[in-house]
Amino acid sequence: MSIPHWHQFLQNLAIKYPPSDTNPALLEKTVICDLSHMGLLQIQGNDASTFLQGQLTNDIKQLNGKNAHYSAYCNAKGRMLAIFLAFTRDHQFYMQLPKTLVEPIAKRLRMFVLRSQVEILDASASIIKIGLSGAQSANLLTTLFSEVPTQDNELSTHGNTAILKLPGVQPRFEIFTDIEQAPEVWQALSAQATPVSADFWEWLDIQAGIPDIKPSTQEEFVPQMLNLDLLGGINFKKGCYTGQEIVARTHYLGTVKRRMHLAHLNTTNSPQPGEIITNSANEAVGKVARSASAPGGGYDVLAELRLDSIKNTVLLVGNVPLNIKTLPYSLTTT
Question: What CATH number does residue 147 fall under?
Answer without folding.
Answer: 3.30.1360.120
